[in-house]
Amino acid sequence: MYRDSKTRTIVKAITWRITATLTTIGLVYLFTGQIQTAVEVGVLEMTAKLLFYYFHERLWDRLMFGRVEVPPFVLWITGIPRSGKTTLGDMVYKKLEKEGIKIQRLDSHDVRPLFPETGFTRDEVNSHIKRVGHLTSMMENNGISTIASFVSPFTESRDFVRNICQNYIEVYLKTTADEISEKYGCELYEKARQGLVKDVAGMDIKYETSSQTELVIEMCDLSLEKATDIIVDYLKKNNL
Amino acid sequence: MYRDSKTRTIVKAITWRITATLTTIGLVYLFTGQIQTAVEVGVLEMTAKLLFYYFHERLWDRLMFGRVEVPPFVLWITGIPRSGKTTLGDMVYKKLEKEGIKIQRLDSHDVRPLFPETGFTRDEVNSHIKRVGHLTSMMENNGISTIASFVSPFTESRDFVRNICQNYIEVYLKTTADEISEKYGCELYEKARQGLVKDVAGMDIKYETSSQTELVIEMCDLSLEKATDIIVDYLKKNNL
User: Fold this and answer.
1) How crowded is residue B151: how many other Cβ atoms within 10 Å of its Cβ?
2) What's the DSSP call for residue B144?
């Protein structure tokens, strides 16, 4: 929660006083035709009202009446490994942070101290994602937006998060393991091809798409900057 | 984060206008000695400035300059089972909530969906408490205060939470298993006495006190209302 500092109140009182006293001087001149009287009233008014305005502001700062909360959102970036989730999440985070919006970034390393290591079976992955979902929901209930980036390949757990959150926006980074391997090379997919690792989304684990996904971004067609703009525009269009 | 609603701005403009136009009428009368001119200037001024004030307010609502965050805190209530942690935490929560302060309540049932069930060995309890600590720290970093109530009998994990949080206040509800059994009866302690359950703080697990604890509340001497007041007063005295 924010409170006005005294400096804010003082500067605000000054910008208002300039607007208001100029109006008064103009009005008094209009009625009396005397520029001297107009300026004298103006000077006295300025002194008295700067003080009154200051205390009026301080009083209102204590009142919650009419203060509305900016609705928080849960931006959920999903896609197979190395599809660009973390980088894109960080880029959107930085862009929104500059505008003074409070956001908690949630990537796998952000939740590691919170949740113990879990395995890669369907049940374990679903449980882990649901836990992260409970966290995003708790943040949302406290007015804090989150940007979460997790592979989260199963619709069951993604839909669970969608249901417990108010403003859930799913962003699916659409690409394939072959595309990624071709563009950047990828040790993980190489190992999976050789059968050295199992449970890799995009290889032996099928990524489950959903018709409910708010934004599907084709990663082979777009730069990360463009993708960031698309997401930020979507949030703004939806007043988030 | 909060933004001013248009209603708030309008009501605020009216309360200010009454203060300000009465001042103007007084001043013009003082200078001209003409009550009619004074009232006419006042009426025109009221119309013009209500509008100007409204837009001045809307503009300032967009500026973050001078808005300061109310510092969040982590209120950590600790003590042996049935010492009154949950009830006291809820009472402090309700009292502060009324004053418009954003707080997340964290009791064992609040964190159950987040963290998997853990055991009762020293290491498991410490890990669980540290996880809760990471959560309180994450909330604090986002400007949200928390009221956590956990047995948390070991100084190791309580000090860990203290170290990762900015405004950590430990409240120890001091009492003994015998006192609780005598006052209210307690199935848990009875079973522990019969050797049917193990790892019970206050019985076979020693509650580790700490010299760093901010508030030690002797539960046998005080009503819960008094204890609530002590905690709320402490927070206010420390500007939290």
Assistant:
1) 22
2) -
Q: Find the Cα–Cα–Cα–Cα dihedral A153, A157, A158, A164, rounded to 10°.
A: -170
Nearest to B167 by CA among B137, B126, B131: B137
Q: Which of B135, B68, B146 is nearest to B101 (CA)?
A: B146
ipTM: 0.81
Backbone φ, ψ for residue B140 (5° rounding): -60, -40
Q: Are strands B67-69 and A2-4 parallel, antiparallel or unpaired?
A: antiparallel
Query: What CATH code is assigned to B74-237?
Result: 3.40.50.300
Domain boundaries, chain B: 6-61, 74-237
**Cα→Cα distances B69→A5, A101, B134, B226, B239, Å:** 9, 13, 21, 29, 12
Closest CA to A146 of A123, A129, A169: A169
Closest CA to B208 of B54, B80, B24, B88: B80
3-state secondary structure of B52: helix
Residues B153, B137: Cα–Cα separation, whole Å: 20
A165 neighbourhood in chain B, CB within 8 Å: none
Q: Chain B partners of A27 at a C-beta cutoff of 8 Å?
A: 41, 44-45, 48
pTM for this prediction: 0.83
**pLDDT digit string (tens) for B58-116?**
888 877 778 777 789 999 999 999 999 999 999 999 999 887 778 999 998 889 888 87
CA A225 to chain CA centroid, nearest Å: 17
Cβ burial, residue A41 (10 Å; 0-12/13-18/19+): buried
From A7, A52, A101, residue closest to B19, measured CB to CB: A52
- Plot region of A67 (φ>0 → left; ψ -120 to 50 → alpha; else → beta): beta
DSSP B122: H
Interface mutation target, options B7, B25, B114, chain A, most CBs of A under 10 Å = B114
Angle A35-61/A6-32 helices, nearest 10 degrees? 150
Q: Is B82 left (phi over 0), alpha (psi -120 to 50) or beta?
A: left
What are the phi and psi torsion angles at B201 (to 5°)?
-65, 135
